[in-house]
Each structure stands twice: as structure tokens, then as C-alpha cells.
Description:
- This protein is of the alpha+beta class.
- Helix content is 55%, strand content 11%.
- It has helices at 4-13, 27-50, 60-70, 78-91, 96-109, 113-138, 145-233, 235-262, 281-293, 312-332, 373-383, 432-464, 482-487, 494-500; strands at residues 297-303, 337-344, 348-355, 387-392, 398-405, 513-515, 522-525, 528-536, 542-551.
- The protein is rod-shaped and about 180 Å long.
Amino acid sequence: MPSPVAESILVSVVSSPFRVRRPLRGPVRAVAETGWVLLAGLGVWAVVGSLGVLPRPYLQLPALAVAGCLFPLRRRCPVPVLLVLAALTGVASCVGPVSAATAYTVARRTVRARTRARLLGAAAALLVVCATLCAPWLGPGPLPYGPALGLVLTPTAVLVPGLVGTSYGQQRRLVRALRERGDAAERARRLADSEARTHERSRIAAEMHDLLGHRLSLISLHAGGLELALERADPELREEAVLVRRTTRDALRELRQALGVLGPLGRDTGPDALTDATGTRADIEALVAGSRDGGIAVRLDWTGPDLDARPAGVRRAVHRVVRESLTNVHRYAGAAHVAVTVAHDEETVRVTVRNGAPPAASAPARALGTGRGLTGLRERVELLGGTFAAAPLPSGGFRVEAVLPAEPGEAPAPRREEVPGAGDGVPAEPPPAERGTAQALTLALGLAGLSVLTALGTLFVYATAPHRDAGPRPLPRVGMTYGDVMGSGVSDNAAVRAAATGREPPRPPGTAGCVYPFNGATESRPGSLTIARYCFDAAQRLVAIDRFTVPSVRDATPWEIP
Length: 562
């Protein structure tokens, strides 16, 4: 059973009848595609027209030009473009390759099976109807041959490319859904691993806090007792005890702050526990207000929206950069002016803390740091994928700047050959260039094959249909020329001429010659032969058609011989 995430992906895939993967294409590619289909249509027109079966071949070129203008609109207006091209295919068979490419594209992009079936069925029916209506004028001629031409063109122009487009589109959508399902499973696994690491870090932090915190608390307690005991006995040693107690207290506080990094948000320990408000504008304003209360002139400049919608790691890093920078100002430049700047946009969060040179040399800090503050900030920022810079200024001040990604956890996981634990393995997608070349070659070969089938089907229907000049030849009549009479099937026969020699009636006046066809000689009764004679004048005009009877000679049959 698919997971809920995969089910939501599949539902989103079939939520609309037409799924547009790329709404806009480059003009160069659109011109190339249109040129290829028009070239295929011209090839069909040239092959069929060269054999002389088309009654009006040049009347089909305007239909092909209209189809070329409509073809680039097949993605924006798929239904009307396909129907119009199907109608034009019934009128001119050379539009068949253009209709085939359009049917393939529309079927590939149509998601709902019922919508796709209705659209292809309507296009096929419209093609047959138009071929039937146009048969007497632009088609093969007789009305029954119009539906035959439409039924021959329908598979090559609509049905076969529509089925291929349907199969290809479903395959693409299925592979995409499987990849998204695998990516969702991978993200879920990463989230589970991250949660497990968070819990483990929280457990380690709790154990370290319990063990080291308890020991440091005991050291601080004993140091306090020793301070009281040495207050009168040895004041010099009492100062050492005070230093031990303060150092232990600072170490305990820093330990709690460091362990807060291991624990999840809201579970940090110590007086500076991190909450859901950590790193927000209100939190930074509170830090600035606390520094002002401590006697430092601090100015806050916030640009962009609040950080309450950003991940906890980003907000925690912003809080730590501002707090650590202000703490260093308290220690080393308490009388300097400080400017805190936070710039937040859709991609990054930039935090800058800049202080000027103090007007006078500050007193030595009572508790010097360990020197790991800025190093810890750098590590924290770089773990989130950001950049960190801290350096003194030429004017004598100091500048700390951190640039953090707004969504460090949203980087896409690297694609693998097969996602383990995600069900069926999905092969890695080939490079776009290789995939585009293979697809273009396959479609070009398919279009060429459909064009050949369209031309052969058109030739078959036109060849079997009777020609417009078919029928019985006209009979010779007086006044026809010699060539017309010969074209009607009349030709001179030497045997018939020999039978008529000496027995024919006188020729008409002005006769220059006569023709005695074989098909005009018939035996009307036994012993007599009827002969037709066609006489022409000097201008090769038929002047008379005579029929007369001459005796015929017949050999006796074998059984009549004595």
C-alpha cells in the first residue's frame, strides 16, 4: 500500500485534465517542430500528387498552410486545434502528419482517461465526416469512397499517435510519481534519523549536566564555605577562594549554555534557556535592551520580516551571534557605541554587530574569556551552511558578521540509482541532453512512418475509386476526326478489308480512304458477314458510316466430309 505522502502525490498528479509541464517553449524549438511536420505533410502531398490521382492537388496546399499556423497553438488550445486539424485532414490528406503530431501532444498531456477518449473519438468522427462530405469535389469522387478514405486516415492521423501519446504520458507521470514517492520516503528517513540524533544528544546533554553540574555545584559550595572560613583567618587566601567560586560559577553557566546546543528547542538548561521566541525580533530587542541597561549605547536596525517562521537552528544562531558580540563589547569596550543590524529576506539572514573604538582605554576585564567564543560562533554558522567573519576595524572598533541561509534544511537530497526502503526501485533519470536526443529521434522516425502509411492509404483509396472519365467510350459519329474515331476503339483490320474488297457498295463522294474495323464485322446469318465501313475525306473527317453484307466462306466440318 502506498504511503499517505505518495497518495497525496498521486492525487495531485490527476487533479487536472491537462497537466502542463512546461508552459512556455523557446521560439526556435517551436519553429523547428512546425517545420518538421510541414515537411512531412509536403512529402505526403508530393508523393500522392506525383502519381496523378488527386483531382485538384494545388487546392490542398492552403489547408496545409492553415494547419502549419494552428500547430504551434496545440499546447495552449489543445481541444479546438486538434478538432480543426482533424477536419482539415478529411479535406486534404497531406494534413495527416500535422494532425498526428497534434494528437500525440494532446494525448500525452491529457491526464483524465475519459476526457482523452472523448477527444480522440470526436476528432476521428470529424475526420470521417469531412472526408465523406468532400469526396465528390476534393476527394476520390464517388460518395462511398469518402468514408473509406476517412477510415484509412483515422488510424494514422488520430488513433495511433493518440495511443502512443497516452502511453508515453502515463509512463512519464508514473515515473515522476515514483520519484516523488522515493524522495518523500528519503526525507522521512532523514527526518527520523535527525530526530533520533536529537533525542540522543538530549540524553547525552542530560547525563553530562547531571554529572558535571553536580560536581561543579559541589566545588562552588565548598569554595563558598572556604571563603567564609578564611574571611578572618587569612584574607589573602580568601581572595583565591572567591576566584575559585566565581570561576566555578562561570564554568557551570557556560556548561549549561553549551549543553543547550545538544538538546532540542525548549529543553535547554540553565538561566539562558532557549525557547520558541529565541532569535526573533522581540528576543533581539530584549538583548539590546539588556545591554542598554548595562550602560552600553546600542542601536538596533531590523530589515525584513520576523524570524518566527524560520527553523530553530537559524534563530538560535542569530541569538548566539548577537549575545556573544554584546558580551564581548561589555568585556572589552564597555564605553563604545554599538550597532546591531539584522537583514532578513527570502534566502538569507545577515547579522552584523559593529562597535566603535572606546573613547578611553577600558579597565581590564574582571573575567577574561577562554577565546573560544568567536570560534564557536564560526562553527555554529558554518554547520548551517553560512559564512562568518570577525575582524577589527581600521578605526579601532570591531565587526562581527554572520550570513545564514534562511532554510538550511531544505536542500534537495542527492538523487540515487535506487531509493532503499521506498518500495520499487526507480532507475536514475538519464541526462537531459541524452533524453532529449533519444526522444526527438524516436518521434521523428514515428512521424516518418505515419507519413508513409498516410500516403499509401490515400493512394490505395484513390486507385480503387473509379476515375471521373471512366465509362463506355463514345460511339463514332459523322463529323468526328480520324484521331477521335481511332481513340474510340476503331482500328483497321486487313482481313475484314480483304473480305469487303470487290463486294462493298460504292464509296461516298469525296472519300479519301476508309477503315474496316474488326469489331464491326459480325456474322448475321450462316454464309453472310456484316461489315462496317468508316469513310473519311481529305480533311480526315468522318463522312459516312456504312454497313453491308458480304458472303462468307466456311470450311466443312470433319464429319461432313465424305
